[in-house]
Every structure is written in structure tokens, then in C-alpha cells.
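dumping this here so i dont lose it
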């Protein structure tokens, strides 16, 4: 039973406190940028107030759908075709809207949030992919911009560490890509280095001296760069697959997780890249490519039919396991937050008790095949894309 790959919400809830989601004005088919300032979210379906999985409010995505969703510093962020909307996470009331729109994959995978600022590649109408925006999460106001030179384009702005914003910048013709460190005070370029394996993905942790890249093609090679000068500190080319859902979800038990997607999960020392431990021996479905999802002290493996919860280390005995699918798990995704593990597959979002594996609730999502359904959780709510594909909405569920 195969699981399609699915990128996780960038800068996971576990590592960076980022979360996600949506709500807004009446359920009209309208672009997100057209919602009324201050409009409350649409109340959810009748049910027991505060009951787990009960819909609290919803936000219409407009005719082009939801391109991304996150949450930081008490604001839900929705990326739509015409801009980014900031919402109150508890009520869905709109706080602000900006016409700055992310030009890549919404605000999920190619944008970063650090200390209350959203960094994204995008622009106003007619802008190019050369402009990077720093947007205040609380107000939606643009704090500053940075523009790459003619003949280049930025593919992502991944976060700040050590006073620098880290970008991936490509050159005309797509022949090569570079990692740039841009000073957040004077906007000068501190350094630029060739992107390892021509990677267009960077993981910027919340602290430390290293940032991490993975190979562009399939997530294989992992490289750690020194934030002082971009020098390679270590590189692992023997890890045949290191999922973005692993790398971007921070550390589990102090280790950076990597997997070959077949039979092994390894914990790497984030400072040296050395293997601390490896786990094999799970009773996996035959001919499967499994997925790995991280929590601070537990990680989760899914082979398309069974979800396993495991502690860091070489022990392959699950703390719990659960049946999660009776068919292909399209674009499966999962994350842990607040004692709950959320797993999305087969057009259904499931909430499990992170300690016992007991099922808390399930909720249908937007019907999809080969499409990344947006979902995340924070502050007592879980947010998920529901309704009709490309014309759906974000529903806030009581977590």
C-alpha cells in the first residue's frame, strides 16, 4: 500500500510554534482578499459547544481555493490567490488583509515565520519573483522588502537565524541555485554559496549555528551549513531519503530524523550528522514507501494501513498503533500538537490521543487525489480544508 508524498506545514508546530488557519465572512464564492474587514467567521454546524471535532467556524477560500495556511503569534494566516489574510484563531474574525501574494506554493513550504514576521517571495500585482517581503504577523503591514538582481529569482524565504534571512536564489535559465544570507537590519547580502545538490528547500531552526538543506530531487542528501559564512559543516549523501515532513519538523529527542522510506528510521546528530541510532523491524505492509512524522519526544510511521507511534532510539516496539486507512492514503500528512496527533489521509482528518492512540474524532476534508489538503492545529483548535476542491473552505474544529 503506497502513500503519496506530502510536504508538511513549513517550520512545524513542534519546532517553531507555527500553526494554521482559517475563517472569515459569509460562505460566498469570493477571493479571500475580498472579505469584509472585521467580519466574524461563519458559525459551525450545531453540536455540543467545545466538543472535540465540533466545527467552530469556517472561512471560504474563494474561487481559486486555499493556497496555504499557518498560524503564529495568535494570528491565523491564510494564503489565497489575491493575498494573505490574518484572522483571529478563536473566532475567525478578520484582523487584516494584504494584497501581497506568495508566488510559489502559498505560504506553507517556501515561506518562513520568525519572531512574529512572515517572510515570503511574492508581490503586489505585476511584481516578479525577485521580491521578498517581511510582513508583520500582528498587523499585516509590510516592514521591509528585498529585491534580487536582474537575471535572478527567489524561490523561497525560509526564516531568520543569527540576524540573517535565508533565501534560495536561482539564475536565469534555471542552471544553478544559491543560498543567500540577507542581513535583516541593512538588507545587505552577508554571503552566498552554491546550493548543495541544487536544493530549493532550507530548514532554519529556532536556534543554533546551522541551517539545513536537502537534495532537490527526492529529499535524499542532507547538508548542514554554518550561518557565519555558508560553509558546509557536514553532509550525508548515504541517506537515501530524508522527508521534508521530518526535516522541517525539528528534532525528536534531540535528533534529526531521516529515513530510507522502506525499513529504517535513523536519528542523526544535528551538529555532526553522525548516526545516533537506527530503528528497523516494524511489521510494515509489503512493497510500501512509509512516511515519518515528528513530535518532540515521539515519532510516527505510517505505511498506508497502520500508524505506529515510537520513541526515539533503536527499539521498534510501538507505544501504540492504529488502523488508519483501507485504501491508498493520498497525500498523507500528520503532526503532533497539545497531546493530540493529527493524521490526514483518504479525505479524512483523524485525531488520536498522542499517549494512548485512542481515537478522539474524525472529520471529512476536501475530496482530493494527488492534492495537498491544508491542515494544522494550535490553541485548542484544528484547522482543515473542507468542501469542494478548489472552491473549498477552512473549517476550525475544536481540538
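and the seq i came up w/
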Amino acid at each position: 500500500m503506497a502513500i503519496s508524498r506530502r510536504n508538511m506545514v513549513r517550520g512545524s508546530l513542534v519546532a517553531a510554534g507555527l500553526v494554521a488557519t482559517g475563517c472569515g465572512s459569509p460562505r460566498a464564492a469570493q477571493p479571500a482578499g475580498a472579505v469584509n474587514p472585521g467580519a466574524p467567521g461563519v458559525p459551525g454546524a450545531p453540536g455540543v459547544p467545545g466538543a472535540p471535532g465540533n466545527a467552530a467556524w469556517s472561512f471560504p477560500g474563494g474561487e481559486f481555493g486555499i493556497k496555504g495556511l499557518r498560524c503564529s503569534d495568535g494570528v491565523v494566516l491564510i494564503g489565497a490567490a489575491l493575498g494573505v489574510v490574518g484572522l483571529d484563531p478563536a473566532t475567525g474574525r478578520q484582523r487584516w488583509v494584504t494584497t501581497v501574494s506568495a508566488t510559489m506554493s502559498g505560504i506553507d513550504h517556501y515561506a518562513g515565520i520568525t519572531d512574529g514576521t512572515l517572510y515570503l517571495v511574492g508581490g503586489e500585482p505585476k511584481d516578479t519573483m525577485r521580491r521578498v517581503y517581511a510582513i508583520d504577523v500582528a498587523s499585516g503591514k509590510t516592514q521591509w522588502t528585498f529585491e534580487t538582481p536582474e537575471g535572478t529569482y527567489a524561490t523561497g524565504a525560509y526564516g531568520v537565524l543569527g540576524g540573517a534571512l535565508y533565501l534560495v536564489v536561482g539564475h536565469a535559465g534555471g542552471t544553478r541555485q544559491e543560498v543567500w544570507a540577507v542581513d535583516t537590519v541593512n538588507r545587505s547580502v552577508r554571503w552566498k554559496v552554491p546550493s548543495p545538490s541544487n536544493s530549493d528547500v532550507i530548514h532554519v531552526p529556532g536556534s543554533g549555528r546551522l541551517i539545513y538543506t536537502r537534495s532537490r530531487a527526492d529529499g535524499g542528501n542532507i547538508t548542514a551549513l554554518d550561518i557565519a559564512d555558508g560553509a558546509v559543516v557536514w553532509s550525508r549523501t548515504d541517506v537515501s531519503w530524508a522527508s521534508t515532513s521530518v526535516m522541517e519538523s525539528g528534532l525528536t529527542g534531540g535528533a534529526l530524523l531521516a529515513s530510507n522510506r522502506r525499513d529504517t528510521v535513523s536519528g542523526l546528530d544535528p551538529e555532526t550528522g553522525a548516526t545516533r541510532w537506527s530503528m528497523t523491524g516494524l511489521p510494515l505492509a509489503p512493497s510500501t514507501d512509509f512516511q515519518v512524522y515528528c513530535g518532540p519526544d515521539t515519532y510516527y510511521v505510517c505505511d498506508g494501513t497502520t500508524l505506529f507511534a515510537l520513541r526515539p532510539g533503536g527499539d521498534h516496539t510501538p507505544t501504540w498503533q492504529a488502523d488508519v486507512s483501507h485504501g491508498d492514503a493520498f497525500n498523507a500528512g500528520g503532526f503532533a500538537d497539545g497531546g493530540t496527533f493529527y493524521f490526514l489521509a483518504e479525505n479524512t482528518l483523524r485525531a488520536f490521543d498522542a499517549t494512548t492512540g485512542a481515537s478522539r474524532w474524525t472529520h471529512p476534508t476536501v475530496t482530493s487525489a494527488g492534492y495537498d489538503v491544508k491542515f494544522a492545529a494550535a490553541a485548542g483548535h484544528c484547522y482543515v480544508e473542507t468542501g469542494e476542491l478548489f472552491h473549498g473552505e477552512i473549517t476550525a474544529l475544536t481540538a
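Residues 1-40, 326-330 have pLDDT under 50 and may be disordered.
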